[in-house]
Amino acid sequence: MSSVLAEIDRLVFVPFAVFDRVRYGGVAVSRFEKVGLGVDVATADAAGCRLIEAARAVFVGGGNTFRLLRILRECGMLERLTTRTREGMVYMGASAGSNIAAPTIRTTNDMPIVEPGSFEALDLVPFQINPHYLDPDPSSSHMGETREQRLVEFLEENPTPVVGIREGAWIRVEGDAAQLGGKRGARIFRRGREPEERSSGASLSDLFS
Predict the structure, then answer these.
(1) Buried-exposed string 168-197: b where 16+ CB fall within 10 A, e elsewhere
(2) Which of 89, 94, 176, 208 has the most other CB atoms within 10 Å of its CB?
(3) C-alpha distances in angstroms, 67 versus 86, 115, 120?
(4) Dihedral through CA 179, CA 80, CA 33, CA 43, nearest 10?
(5) Angle between helices 65-74 and 77-86 (to 10 degrees)
């Protein structure tokens, strides 16, 4: 994160994916201040949108992706985030915040606790994201679908590639270049192909073509 924010000393935190936004915002302020970053916590209103308009960097926190997308859409912030990011604002997201960077939220792991109006999201990258990706456990007695089976089902109905990001992994995107980083790798799912393993440091730029 330090290299991404090398010349930035303040960011806007978006807490809309959780119910208690005040508490979540407070946690974010405390954690970012420990690394020398000032934080403005966005609210779901015109004032929050003005923060986005002026921000040099935004961090969208995790929680429920359906709740996050609904609130962003209802307060008019969804399009602003897309526009500002394409203008050069740094966008960072964790969990639900990374889900919405994709074209849609169809590969979220979350329960649809609210109607988001549409599954369409920020469309900042041309691939879907599945955070917290879990590999199949051969010793598990769970009888439901594995994460891999669910993503294969997605590809039966949708042509967009999916990046399954394991815990501790991240993706950095600059223009049409993307690189996988962090402690663990990712699994790439594409229609008509076997899932592919990518390790930390690998390029994901081929997913832009």
Answers:
(1) ebbbebeeeebebebeebbbbbbeeeeeee
(2) 89
(3) 24, 8, 13
(4) -140
(5) 90
Interatomic CA distance for residues 9 and 56, integer angstroms? 9
| Cβ pair 186, 128 in contact under 8 A | no
Active-site positions? 95, 110, 132
- Can you name the CATH fold of 1-110? Rossmann fold (3.40.50)
Tens-digit pLDDT profile for residues 148-170: 999 999 999 999 999 999 999 99
H or E segment to which residue 54 belongs: helix 46-54
- The helix/strand count (H/E) of the chain reads as 6, 10
The matching CATH number, chosen from 3.40.50.300, 3.30.460.10, 3.40.50.2000, 3.40.50.880, for 125-209 is 3.40.50.880
For 101-152, write each residue's pLDDT tens digit.
999 999 999 999 999 999 999 999 999 999 999 998 777 777 678 999 999 9
